[in-house]
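Incident review: delayed structure delivery

Summary: a single-chain prediction request sat in the queue longer than the usual turnaround. Root cause was a stuck worker, restarted by the on-call engineer. No data loss occurred. The affected request and its eventual output are reproduced below so the record is complete for anyone auditing the incident later.

Affected input:
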Amino acid sequence: MGSGGLGLLVGLSAVALQPAPATAQEYALTSPAGDSLRFELADLRVMLEEARILYDDLVEDPRVLYILGFGPPASVDAPDPAYPWNAVSPTSDSTVDVVTPGNLREADRAYYNYAVMRMREVRTEDPDDPCDALVAREEMVLSSFVDGWVLARTLFGGPGFAPLDELAFARAAGHLRPLLAARGDASVGACAAAWAEANPGAVGAYEDWRADAFPELGTPAEDAGSGDGAEETEGAAEADDTADAADSGSAP
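Output delivered after worker restart:
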């Protein structure tokens, strides 16, 4: 990456990857429903070491230019910029943009984890691989993001953000793959919808779990809107029918 950006990144890494002093041997995340995920300090240290290795890769890898920045804040009502598959955008097999939402700066290591793991996939994946293989690999890449998010929320005291907390709880509950399919993970493209269509039971079980564990995130219907789009579509169809009728009436 560019020398100016590299100097800044190296300076930031010395601060960003130093854990706050621990006062207990166990850390926890709590969902809005009151469920808890508990992490032993030893497990967090393993995640931290992996984050450091991936960050070193991001700084030193001569084959990939990582363009890092901060973007507008994400919100629970508009979470899309926070999902890693939207924040990390490979533009080729050697260039990737990483835009961390401005209100989630403490989670930058999570996005860096995801960026390095995603680019490894970009550089090695076969476009002819079946959707199941692509989704399985994205689940692994997304799990690396979850590790970074857990570090941000526990060792480093970062603020909670329900759509990303959900990723950690979904992984623990075995729902990470249907989550990425149901939420339209852009890294797998059309395979997200194809996998969801082929595995409706898994997606349904995930959505039921989500409604209980993270009720403030809404249902699939609420995610898609209140139905105004359908009404507009019907209105457009009626207008087209009227235009067709007028055209046929004026024909010689």
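Verification: Residues 131-153 form the longest helix (23 residues).
Action items: add queue-age alerting; document worker restart procedure.
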